[in-house]
Design a protein that fits this description.
It contains twelve helices and 14 strands. It is an alpha+beta fold. The chain has a six-stranded antiparallel sheet with strand order 3-2-1-6-5-4. Helix 7 packs parallel to helix 11 and helix 9 packs antiparallel against helix 11. The longest helix has 42 residues, at 42-83. It is elongated, with a radius of gyration of 40 Å. Its main location: membrane. The chain crosses the membrane at residues 20-39, 44-64. Pfam families: HATPase_c, HisKA, PAS_8. Keywords: ATP-binding, Cell membrane, Kinase, Membrane, Nucleotide-binding, Phosphoprotein, Transferase, Transmembrane, Transmembrane helix, Two-component regulatory system.
């Protein structure tokens, strides 16, 4: 039970020093009256009686004031006893806030055990694993920077803040704000500790910085190559027709690489701009895949790679979407498979329909790692899936979760002209996310790779149902 407040001034437990002079004055007045009667000084008797009345009135007022103060203090004591152990009046308000919030009290600067949490909202209890309504602060928080910030708020009446990383299986970064709240009724110092989750904002900032650094690097390489060849052509190679043609061909390839990179950057930017808006036009997934296969068949024949297309037998594969973006998904996945296929390989392109979310994402063979790269958040949907399987070198399990990162390339993979801008799978992921779909990769070294993109089917019920909010993806 919390300690009761000290007795306030003016609430005495007995007669106070201010009451005794009045009693003495009253006694002296009575003595004067008696003396005047004995001496027969009736002319002074009326004045003495008036003074005595004044003294009696003052004594009465002091007595009533003391009794009133005692009554008020008793009421405070009763209210404190009744509220002991009950949630504070602001509990409902703080519990409704999403940020973790803790109210802390303390009395002695040099005594850590005097620092107690007296209230924590549900978010704070979950963050700090608090299972009691009140307790020692050091029992739930041992971060020295947090404790120092709390002390500044408690004993220096200053605002303080610091960074807090709770640890655990998920990497999280929070900013902690400590704010002074003044004194409680019983004299304890109070402070408010608020946590604000900065994990997502820091991730976005880190992604932006990495993106700018990688984009600059990717553009710098072909630019440096172009500059070098231009200098060579202006020098000794300008009179050598064979060297000139060779250098011009390389320069054209580097310029094409820069153009593809810029196009991919602009495409990714446009997709992200409208990613929160789900497209709703009917799109035939089979028709989109057929168009892409027709467009890339010459490249497959040039590399002696066979394309095997499998279409759904019963279910239609019509999805709500943006046809151009669905074609881009199919093209990027098929182009990626062709890049890592060798002569004589087979690339399988399969369209399936009428699948549950689990069915669309399942299918890894024995010994093959399966990693979801994007999972839709709605349940009960029926999906159409596009699976693209190659017989390439495969990918180690530790590299699979990073495949959709911008500019990420697997170490040890083929290099040269076949490699793209490093943005193809990132574009695929963002397009699928805009369509409220999912993406899964299955692969193992020497066993090829399968990418499965799946999208909600367009049904009468789905057309009338509001589209879910898009998830944030990097």
């Amino acid at each position: 039970m919390p300690s009761l407040p000290p007795q306030p001034a003016g609430a005495p437990q007995g007669p106070q020093p201010a009451f005794w002079p009045i009693l003495l004055a009253g006694a002296a007045g009575l003595f004067v009256l008696a003396a005047l009667l004995l001496l027969g000084r009736l002319d002074l008797l009326s004045a003495a009686i008036g003074g005595l009345v004044i003294v009696a009135t003052a004594a009465t007022l002091v007595f009533v004031s003391d009794r009133s103060a005692e009554a008020r203090y008793a009421a405070v004591i009763r209210a404190a006893e009744e509220r002991a152990g009950e949630p504070p009046p602001y509990a409902a308000l703080i519990n409704a806030l999403p940020d973790p919030i803790v109210v802390i009290s303390a009395t002695e600067p040099d005594d850590l055990t005097s620092r107690r949490y007296i209230f924590a909202n549900s978010a704070a209890r979950q963050l700090l694993r608090i299972d009691r309504p009140q307790g020692l602060l050091v029992g739930v928080m041992r971060d020295p920077e947090i404790l120092e910030a709390v002390d500044e708020a408690l004993f220096d009446a200053k605002d303080a803040e610091t960074v807090y990383e709770p640890g655990g299986s998920q990497e999280r970064t929070l900013r902690a704000y400590a704010r002074p709240l003044g004194l409680a009724l019983d004299g304890r110092r109070l402070a408010l500790l608020v946590f604000r989750d900065e994990t997502e904002s820091r991730r976005v900032e880190r992604t932006r910085s990495d993106f700018l650094a990688n984009a600059s690097h990717e553009l710098r390489t072909p630019l440096a190559s172009l500059t070098g060849f231009i200098e060579t052509l202006r020098g000794h190679a300008k009179d050598d027709p064979a060297a000139r043609e060779r250098f011009l061909a390389i320069m054209q390839a580097q310029a094409g690489r820069m153009a593809r990179l810029i196009n991919d950057l602009m495409s990714l930017s446009r997709i992200e701009l409208n990613e929160h808006i789900a497209p709703d036009e009917p799109v035939d997934l089979v028709a989109c895949v057929s168009d892409v296969v027709d467009a890339l068949s010459p490249i497959a024949r040039e590399r002696s790679v066979a394309l095997q297309v499998v279409q759904p037998e019963r279910w239609p594969a019509v999805i709500p979407g943006d046809r151009d973006q669905i074609i881009q998904v199919a093209q990027n996945l098929l182009d990626n498979a062709l890049k890592y296929s060798s002569e004589g390989d087979i690339v399988r392109i399969e369209v399936a329909s009428g699948l549950s979310g689990e069915g669309a994402a399942a299918g890894a063979a024995r010994g093959v790692a399966r990693v979801p790269l994007l999972t839709p958040d709605q349940a009960g949907e029926t999906y159409a899936a596009l699976r693209v399987t190659d017989q390439g070198p495969g990918i180690a399990r530790e590299n699979l979760p990073r495949l959709t990162e911008r500019f990420y390339r697997v170490e040890g993979q083929k290099s040269g002209e076949r490699l793209g801008t490093g943005l193809g799978l990132a574009i695929v992921k963002h397009i699928i996310n805009r369509h409220r779909g999912g993406l899964v990769v299955e692969s193992a070294p020497t066993q090829g790779t399968t990418f499965t993109a799946y999208f909600p089917l367009l049904t009468a019920a789905a057309a009338e149902r509001p589209r879910p909010r898009v998830a944030k993806v990097s």
